[in-house]
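Why Geranylgeranyl transferase type-2 subunit alpha? Reviewers of the renewal asked for a concrete example.
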Amino acid sequence: MHGRVKLKSTAQQEEEKRKEREKKLKIYVASRDAIFTKRMEGVLDDEALQLTQQLLSSNPDFATLWNYRREILLHLETVREEDDVQKMYEAELLFLESCLKVNPKSYGSWHHRGWVSARLPRPDWARELGLCDRCLSLDDRNFHCWDYRRMVVKMSGVPVDQELQFTDRLIGSNFSNYSSWHYRSTLLPLLHPESPDPPSPCHQPSHSSPPPSPQTHSHRVCEEQLLKEYELVQNAFFTDPNDQSAWFYYRWLLGRAEREEMISCVFVSREEERVAVAFSRPVNASSSGLMLVLDGQPQRVEWRSVHPHFRHSPVWICELPPGTISDIINEHNLTVHWTEKHTHRDCALYTGRSESWCRDSATDQELFRSELSVEKTSVLQSELQSCNQLLELEPQNKWCLLTIILLMRALDPLGYERETLSHFQTLKEVDSMRSAYYGDLCSKFMIENTILKMEYAEVRVFSLSDKNLTMLCHLDQLLLVTHINLSCNQLLRLPPQFAMLQCLEVLEADDNAIDNLDGLYYLPKLQEVSLKNNQISKLSDLQLLTSCPKLTCLDLRGNPVTQIANIQSELTELLPSVTDLLI
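Here is what the prediction returned.
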């Protein structure tokens, strides 16, 4: 046994490690307590700075110490010359680099570096951009670094085209760089904005003025650049069809332009002496400067949203004083002014008419897709063919299937409806974990198609029976609908947005799984409701129907609530206006 090295047992090694950890912990706690004592005593000196540096070097995520460190630095600023302050903060940047080596995703370190850079008398932004380049070369999805880079770009005024070239380099070296694709989507609208007066040529910045900063906001990309982006992203997803980064960027390219902010519809009812106004987006009418002028006279009215849940809503209503427009023999002219957006819409209530409205059709507004030029249509058709070719090679690729659906929606939503439904069915099979998402998206597209068909037919009847709907949307577009059929779907509720159907008279929603009627709130024209074979189980679920003054017919057959004892008399007491009750 002589001459052999004695090996320590595992238990001995663990015990020594434990003792070493305890020793380090005691030193750490003692230093922490000393720092806290100094801060409580208001000490702001170099010794305190050194103590915080010792602890942050090993644990850069101690936010309180960073706060104390900033207090010390701010104090030292006031007692030192500018050159000394410059050296102090340059040393701080070097210290921060060592902290980032310990944890490259330290919230505290990146935040403190931004604070220091902003206070430097003579900042070296080129050096900071270089640091970002190095960090992103090690981890191209370090969102802390991306945030810091955007701050540096804003402070130093880096031109947009230079940053776009930076994304070119990163994407060229790694198509899977999602952060670069996202950053590119924020830069392109600034460098190549869509002209406000299409189809004018792509805007080119003047040589005499510097390119815009990447930190200002715009919306869409001009068509000329958009077509180039299609080619770039196609190279990416053909290289690796299963990588989601390029597919997400492609989906952004196919996105719809934001709708113009406007009053999309004004409806007036002589019988209820009520005005309903629909907007292109949810607004707060009480703070948006909405004014009603009747026959040239401003009216003092109280605007309210269609449901108490909504402070912002696309549809707002108001009641006029009794007798204002009830006289059937007179004509009235209304104007709704949206002073916040300097726009208005007129509506005339003619003699003998009980109601009137003024609106743009959904087809005119291009609600559900952007208007396409001949060139863009040709390119998208080519893109669709390419994706179909890829699908033949990768028939189970969910990204390709979803992109084909989006391309079909952009080109011709009604013409491709059958193919779209088929692709959604395939998506649910190949990506079953997200089948509910695909069901909701398919429901959304089917509702959009039905709205378009209703507009072309110029009717106020909306039928979506037996469409496998899982959710409802775009209900603000159904303000004028009088009859809606939602039977034989998979709906679980009538959401509060359903209250936007202010002209609804007949609702059919049989054979769903509805157990919530939140949306049946104050529908002033609603007369008939059929809810056969749903999941309404409590009398309280029907409470909101009491707010519908004209309701006379209610069919609840096949619902659990009908099994409650004395339900007939309970319902008669709850809904005295209902004369035709089927249970």
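The longest strand covers residues 274-283. This is the kind of structural detail the renewal will allow us to pursue systematically.
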